Amino acid sequence: MVEAAGWIARLQRDDLNETDGLEFDAWLAAFPDNRPAYRQTLDLWQAFGASAGEVLAQMETPARTPGRRVANGGTGAPTRRWLVGAGGFAVAAGLAAVVLPPMVRKAPEQILSSGRGQRRRFQLADGTNVDLNAESRLSVSFSRSERRVSLEDGEAIFDVVSDKARPFTVAAGEHTVRVVGTQFDVRNRDGDLTVTVARGRVEVRPSSASDRVFVLTPGQRLDIGAGGVGTLQAVNPQEAFSWRSGRLVYRGQPLARVVADLNRQFVDQVVIGDPELGAIPITGVIVLDTPQAVMSRLSLMLPVRTVTSERGLLLLRK
Q: How is 86-115 classified by DSSP, letter by letter?
């Protein structure tokens, strides 16, 4: 329990960082007894914290009272039982003073982001893996009771480590995605939310209590448009995950969305010259090699052509 007490003190530091969180999780996983020892020690600290004044007052009594002598001749040496009892009491009371008033502070918020043309992987302090698609931004805030992230804009795949004591939630637009341990993709772009589940169960809850709560199982995708209407359908989850390997899969998506996705993946931008072209539905797989090659292949399937301009690749009707 001494190591557990040390971790409780360390996790209260003002300069707490991600390394502390990673090392703490590693310590918890190192031995089966570490996690229950930490919980027991934390309960002990909290109990003393609730009555710190009374504890500290009682500590003054042994200091003014001579130590008990052993019955075998009165050598003045305190018994081992007294040493252990007094020592443990002093340590516990001292720790109670340390932890007041807060017990364990929340770790500082962490910001994860990717730029244009970037796809990045991160591992969070609890061991959860996060893959960020291009031009995405994610904030991470972990506490003792909850693992919370916010996908302000972008797309991410979460492979969440199970922890029933700390649910994992993703705030995306007007909805919150809640899980314990699962793998799923969340896309939050321009007011449209898409959640695709590959493993586990995922709950998607709106900010308004009057709106519908969706529970997704593996192989399901939820699409919620800007108007708040949700559509649930069966899909192949790997299609939603394909961007990790440099491929985009579309089924009846408008060309305008495809171009918007491409412009996040490439520095060279594509501009739709005729607004009516943006409504053309696209079904197929796009390999992300170069924007010129992508548009050349699209021109073979669609009534469009590309022209190099100062704004980038201009998409025109044939």
A: HHHHHHHHHHHHHH-S-SSPPPPPEEEEE-
- Summarize pLDDT for 36-63 with one digit per residue, the tens: 887 777 767 655 554 445 555 554 555 4
- pLDDT tens readout for residues 16-28: 555 666 777 777 8
Strand partners, 158: 130, 184
- Measured between its terminal Cα atoms, the distance across the chain in Å is 74
Residue 297 token pair: 């292949």
Boundaries of every domain in the chain: 2-99, 110-237, 246-317
Angle at 278 (CA atoms; ends 277, 279), nearest 5 degrees: 90
- Mean local confidence (pLDDT), 89-104: 39
- Looking at domain 246-317, its CATH architecture is 3-Layer(bab) Sandwich (3.55)
Predicted TM-score (pTM) above 0.85? no
Among residues 318, 284, 286, 279, which one has the least CA distance to residue 302? 318
